[in-house]
Structures are given as C-alpha cells and as structure tokens.
Amino acid sequence: RLDVLRAEQQEASTVVTMNDTENVLDDFRDLLRRTAGLAENERFSIAMPADIPLEVPDLDEALAGRMDRRPEALEAGDQVVDAEFALRIAKSLELPSLNGFLQYQATGTGGSAGDALHPRNPALVFGLSSQYGLNNTVLHARKRQAEIELGTRKRNFDVLSDDFAREVRRAYRRLDAQE
Fold first, then answer.
1. Which among 26, 55, 53, 58 is positioned nearest to 40, based on CA atoms?
2. How many CB atoms lie within 10 A of CB 130?
C-alpha cells in the first residue's frame, strides 16, 4: 500500500515536471520566433549546421558586430532613433509658423439673380500670417525634455554596448584559457 502511494506521488511529480518542460519549450520557441522576427503563430524549424566553424572569428570582428544581432541592442538603437525624432519634432514646434492664403472675392448686385452673378469689383487677395507664441515656456520645456530623453537613451545604448563588449572579451578569455 505504501508503494502504491509513492508511485502515485512520483507519477504526479512526473506530470508536473513534464508540464513545466513543455512550458519552457514553448517559451524557448516563442523567444526564437521573436528573435527571428517571425509572426506570432508562424511555424518554423531549426536546421542543424553541416559543420561548426573551425576558426574563431577575430576579436575585433566580434566586437564590431556585437550590437547587430542581440534583440535588446536593436531595441536600444530603435529607442535612440525614436528619441531623435521626438527632439526634431519638439524643435520644429518651437519655430514660428507662417501661413499663406490666396482668396478671390467679388460682389454683385442686380434686380435679378442673373444680374447679381455678374461680378463687379473683383478682388484677388494674397496674404501671409505668422504665429509665434509670446510665452513659449511650454515648448521650450518640451524641447528640453526631449533633449534629456535623447541623452538618456544614448547613454543607455552606450552602457549596453560596453556590457556586450565585456561579455565578448570575457568569452574570448575563456576560450583562450581552454586552449
């Protein structure tokens, strides 16, 4: 009777472990799919390479390509580009706006509708109007906030780049130690 209880406990533990393993596998497939840039439910397979490269790439080559492959590096680069666009927009909002208009007008009077449609005293009006706020504190604050955001994003990108460079150098030191 005790053996049956132990077997049932082990079976339950095995079912839980299998479920956890399937969840980890699904998470890994999802991560691979997102890293490859595939759609959410798109099927894919991984082909094993014919052989592993015999030569290790040069350290300078590895350092040069460190920000081109990692998803978090690509995301940080996109955030820098977005912050640059936001700063450009904030700067353009600070500039005065200039609007031009062209208008044709004519007046007509007469005893009948037909007589009134013949224009008398036609006028072509061309004009310019500009707007520049006397209190541009809000626009200046918005521009300054965008500058700070851009500086923060660039600093985060540089820190991430330095972290990846350290990881690459550490991996090459380990590789040299193994040889």
1. 26
2. 9
Q: DSSP for 25-81?
A: HHHHHHHHHHHHT--TT-----PPPSS--SSPPPHHHHHHTTTTT-HHHHHHHHHHH
Q: Which ranges of 37-136 does DSSP label H, i.e. alpha helix?
A: 59-64, 71-94, 113-117
Residue 119 has pLDDT above 70, yes or no: yes
User: Two tokens at 56?
Assistant: 């290790």
pTM of the model: 0.55
d(CA 143, CA 149): 10
**Structure-token pair, residue 80:** 């820098």
User: Rounded CA gap, 135 and 153, in Å?
Assistant: 29
| Amino acid letter for position 2 | L
Tokens of 99: 């609007």
Distance (Å) of CA 83 to CA 23, 110, 132, 139, 147:
37, 62, 25, 16, 8
Give the tens place of pLDDT for each residue, 10-67. Answer: 888 898 999 999 999 888 888 888 877 788 777 777 777 777 767 777 888 888 888 8
Question: Looking at residues 69-85, what average pLDDT do you find?
Answer: 92
